[in-house]
Amino acid sequence: MPELPEVEVVRAGIEPAVTGAVIAGVEIFEPRSLRRHAGSSESFVNALEGQRVHAAVRRGKFLWLPLASGQALVMHLGMSGQVLLRNPGAEGDRMLRIRLHLDHPDHGELWLNFVDQRIFGSMAVDTMLPTRDGFVGGFSGDATTPGEWAHLIPSQVAHIARDPLDPAFSAAGFGLALSRKNTGIKRALLDQALVSGIGNIYADEALFAARLHYAQPANSLSRPKVTRLLAAVREILGKALVEGGTSFDAQYVNVNGESGYFSHSLNAYGQHGTPCPRCGTILVRESFMNRSSHFCPRCQRLR
Known about the structure:
It contains 6 helices and 12 strands. By secondary structure, it is of the alpha+beta class. The protein folds into 2 domains: 4-154, MutM-like, N-terminal (N-terminal domain of MutM-like DNA repair proteins, Alpha-Beta Barrel); 171-295, Helicase, Ruva Protein, domain 3, CATH 1.10.8. The chain is globular and about 60 Å long.
């Protein structure tokens, strides 16, 4: 599943094309991609057509476009969703589920195609709520003249915690939340109500960098270890962003259909059977929550 870096690459890619654009038309090719929309396909189209988009915003793995109506178009990529920018009349993308026709004052006409092989992703028009902490709802590169929309968040995203790259993320609050968790630290990192945007890949990489076993109880970590872990998470997410995310196949691409290359920088995830780059011990893989955890049995001992 796309994680924070992959979703942020998409957000940054569509931002220039959608900010200030008017949604001139909507085409729905697969109604199942509206499973999180509260109304009918017709209501989805009616809520979008003619609306001006204020920005492209992200929290964790969720994307949304604040609209002039006060609502938002919420997008979730699911397992295989892609958001692709195309020129009008371009050859059709396979597995195209929804298309938005955009009219931008500077860039002219554009298509925004929502492509999804497994149809686990979705689009939905949602109501907006004030943020609980009073800070901006999510990350938006267009912070020059934010309007009321900036301090609002879609109701479908309101339960998602802030991510470690969010300027309003509280390191102290993160440490306090971990001290109350008796679960393994990796399970805590994957809890989107505690911290968002971290999936299996980046959890393994951060725990490797911080020398922590995935099953180490979260409430057993000292404050310095929590600080080290958070620093590792931020460093790895930041590096993955620079490298365009992690792509293992053609499903993980940016808005131009290009793959990221952070997969070449992975130290732990998918590296089982190879020597640890720190100590030379063979890295192992163990079953974890219907997934796998990859770690060094020497550097990351369960204590």
